[in-house]
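PROTEIN FOLDING TASK:
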Amino acid sequence: MTGGQFKYHLHEDCSGFAFGSRNFHLDILKLYFAPKEPGGSSIPLKFNFGLHSVLFKILAIFAPHFDNRSYINQFMYAIVNIAGKQFKVTKDQQIYAPKMQGEVDASVEFDQVLFADNEGQVSIGAPMLDGAKVSAKILGHVKGDKVIVFKKKRRKGYKKKRGHRQQYTKIQIEDIVL
């Protein structure tokens, strides 16, 4: 496929461009193709097949994720220390943490919150945030994928094959309190 061209129209505020019914927002993708025209109308862009065609294919794959930009900075997240490992968590997120004590459907709280972002308001702990808590519910105790440990010494007839499955606790984040 050589010699073909796609026609795009840049939005008037230079925030993105449109191809058919799809909108591509350049500020999210950090791509700026052309400056704003002084008259305020959209600038038609023409891309030849080749490197720009590859770029178009990549953008077409991710375009449904960028059509609605209302998700930017509208959620709270925190970085919390759970059993010696740090997790970035949001409300209603399910994560697999190292195995911990507790029954299924039991409620647990984690008070070792290192960092929190509440719709753009950033709080950084030194080393922990005072009064911040993350509450969660235990959904179950599960095992991870099997890891095969194989040892062999050549020409000695020595072979050992062992398997290991790490145990995890599946938890769901219910609330983040700052």
Notes: Residues 20 and 26 are 16 Å apart (CA to CA).
